[in-house]
Amino acid sequence: MKYKKNILCIGAGYVGGPTMAVIAAKCPDFKVTVVDVNAERIRAWNGDRLPIFEPGLLEVVREARGRNLFFSTDIAAGIREADIIFVSVNTPTKTFGQGAGMASDLQYWEKTAHEIVAHSDRAKIIVEKSTLPVRTAEAMEHILQENKKGIHFEVVSNPEFLAEGSAVRDLLEPDRVLIGSRQTEAGLQAMREVREIFARWVPAEKIITTNLWSAELSKLVANAFLAQRISSINAVSALCEKTGADVGEISFAVGSDKRIGPRFLNASIGFGGSCFKKDILNLVYISRSYGLIEVADYWEAVVRMNEYQQERFVQAIIREMFHTVVGKKIVLLGFAFKADTGDTRESPGIHVARKLLEERASLVISDPQALENARRDLAAIVGATAGTVEYEPDPYRAAAGAQGLAVITEWPAYRELDFEKIFASMGKPAFVFDGRNILDHRRLFEIGFNVFPLGKPSLTHFA
Ligand code: UDX
Ligand code: ADP
Asked: Which CATH entry fits the domain spanning 244-463: 2.40.40.10, 3.40.250.10, 3.40.50.720, 1.10.10.10?
């Protein structure tokens, strides 16, 4: 046999694609196949324009593709030949019925479980990669064990901690790999088989093994903690604006305490991305379903603070631009939920754009990677409001004739822009709202802009 083991991943998205590319690169003797119902996505994975933008990913994919990494739409064949199946389908927040807006929508995940049963003719290890509510593995086990074929499926949880934009680095040098399994002989054996994959490149002490429920819950809790730090510093940014304190100085002072640490303390217009809000709401829903109301309320406040921060940012734009933005050209610099990705899921830019369009502004959205997604996100909103939207990748062209710039995404290139040139091309008075605190505010002020950072004193030319 050409390959020692066959690994399958169902779901070729932001998690499945990069994770499998790295596994294939590090385990050349394993065949790694990634399948998806979305034929267009699979076509893109097989070409040079990958369906997601992720620094360094194309190189890793090229190294393994065709050798031991394959992308396909033949889900049945993939399941048949697999020894280990990673399930990495989307589990968005439910938009309907019970738990709408809070619970995870598990329809894609359940469909996958049924497909695995339908196309299997021997025992397999099923690895939950998608973030799932705690105790989902139990439901997965129920569906899988109901098969009439007498096949044993062992379910293991291996949550993914990669962050977009640094996915390849996070996968190559993870802080930890977490594998949760049943503490039975079969469960521990399955855990060892999954551990063997990661042990090819991850030091043994970084591979943590736990019971199934701890692994599932750890993922939700890790994201909740990270998001909580952002909401905490964002709450402080509001207080800074009232008191004359500087949130950047506070982050530094507070983060210098080794027990706290400096990361994830950047005040912003709010966190976005497919994980934080979804996972916290999931935690809230689960807590509430166990009757832990105080626990649920505690975590829900993290999301509420995030919404407050996004709203505060839009309100500042409207207020400072003399309480009206009707017909005013305002540029959103960036639309991705963070730098180094084209992903716009839950991007604060969506909220900011919607509110400004409702106020009948003329928006220009600029972003080096996310314009296609932005267009899709805003399609329905534009039709329902009286504002207008243009999409312009070039920030200089975007800014010509505009009255305001609002930084949504912390793309490093925005720091390097020639703001004198931009100022000269803009209508006056010209405003900058820095939702990421990445620009040189003093310098912008000296050029002539009225500058509104987050959590720092504003710099204006008005008497
Ligand atoms: C996150 C987790 O980091 C990752 O471990 C998990 O697997 C998936 O969810 P991701 O959503 O890709 O990853 O991005 P992350 O870097 O965590 O940023 C999330 C959001 O928080 C972004 O909108 C980012 O701009 C924002 N953020 C981050 C801040 O506003 N301030 C900070 O200090 C850090
Ligand atoms: P994530 O960020 O968790 O990776 P994505 O939405 O990027 O989520 O990717 C999930 C992928 O799973 C999508 O490409 C979707 O088409 C795919 N998918 C959903 N359901 C199935 C299924 N039953 N079989 C195969 N692929 C599926």
From this structure: 3.40.50.720
**Topology alike, domains 5-202 and 244-463:** yes
CB of residue 45 inside a 6 A radius of ligand 2: no
Second-level CATH architecture of 5-202: 3-Layer(aba) Sandwich (3.40)
pTM: 0.94
Taking the centre of ligand 2 as the mean of its atom positions, its distance from the CA of residue 445, in whole angstroms, is 46
Residue-level pLDDT at 1: 60
Ligand 1, atom nearest to 268 Cα: 30
Catalytic residue list: 275
Q: What is the pLDDT of residue 40?
A: 97
Q: How far apart are CA 55 and CA 162, in angstroms?
A: 13
Q: Are 280 and 102 in contact (CB under 8 A)?
A: no
Q: What tokens appear for 135 in the block? A: 């105790």
b/e map of 81-91 (b: 16 or more CB within 10 Å)? ebbbbbbbbbb
Helices (H), 290-347: 293-320
